[in-house]
Amino acid sequence: VQLVESGGGLVQPGGSLRLSCVASGIMLSRNSMSWVRQRPGKGLEWVASIFSYDTDPGYADSVKGRFTISRDNAKNTVYLQMNSLKPEDTAVYYCNARRSSTEYWGQGTQVTVSS
C-alpha cells in the first residue's frame, strides 16, 4: 500500500494550492480519507476528512470555509483544495487512509505560506 502526496509548495498569503493523494494497493472509496498537518514545532493536527459512507465531509474550524476535501474514485485520488491561505497554514500535510483498525500514511508534502 502506498499513498503519495503532491501539490505542495510556496505560496503567498491569500493564494491557493491543491494537494493530491494518489493511492495504490487500496481502494480509496472503501476508506475514510483524511488530511492531517504538522506545523513547525507542533504535533499532528487533523484538517479534513471524507468518508467511505454517504455523509458530509468534516473540517477543522481553522480551515472551514477555506479548504475543500474531495475524491475521484476513478483515479483513486483524494484532493485538498486550499484557498485564502494564511501563514499559519504552513505545515507538512499528510494523507491518511483508514478502514476499521487499519490505517496508512503518506510521506507528506510541504506547504509554505509566506510573502
Provide a brief overview of the structure.
The protein has no helices and eleven strands. With 115 residues, the chain is mainly β. Strands 2, 4, 5, 6, 9, 10 and 11 form a seven-stranded mixed sheet that branches. Strands 1-3-8-7 form a four-stranded antiparallel sheet, with no helix packed on it.
Structural key phrases:
mainly beta, 115 residues
Structure explained in plain terms:
The strands form two sheets. Strands 2, 4, 5, 6, 9, 10 and 11 form a seven-stranded mixed sheet that branches. The protein has a four-stranded antiparallel sheet with strand order 1-3-8-7, with no helix packed on it. By secondary structure, the chain is mainly β. The model has no long low-confidence stretch (mean pLDDT about 95). It has no helices and eleven strands. The protein is globular and about 40 Å long.
Q: Pairing-aware structural class of the strands and helices?
A: mainly beta
Beta-strand percentage?
A: over 45%
End-to-end separation in angstroms reads: 37 Å
**C-alpha Rg (nearest Å):** 13 Å
Number of helices: 0
How would a crystallographer describe the biggest sheet? Answer: 7 strands, mixed
What percent of residues adopt helix (DSSP H or I)? Answer: under 10%
DSSP strand tally: 11
Shape: globular
Poorly predicted sequence stretches spanning 5 or more consecutive residues: none
Q: What's the topology here?
A:
Blueprint: E1 2-6, E2 9-11, E3 17-24, E4 32-38, E5 44-50, E6 58-59, E7 67-72, E8 77-82, E9 91-99, E10 102-105, E11 109-113
Parallel strand pairs: 2-11
Antiparallel strand pairs: 1-3, 3-8, 4-5, 4-9, 5-6, 7-8, 9-10, 9-11
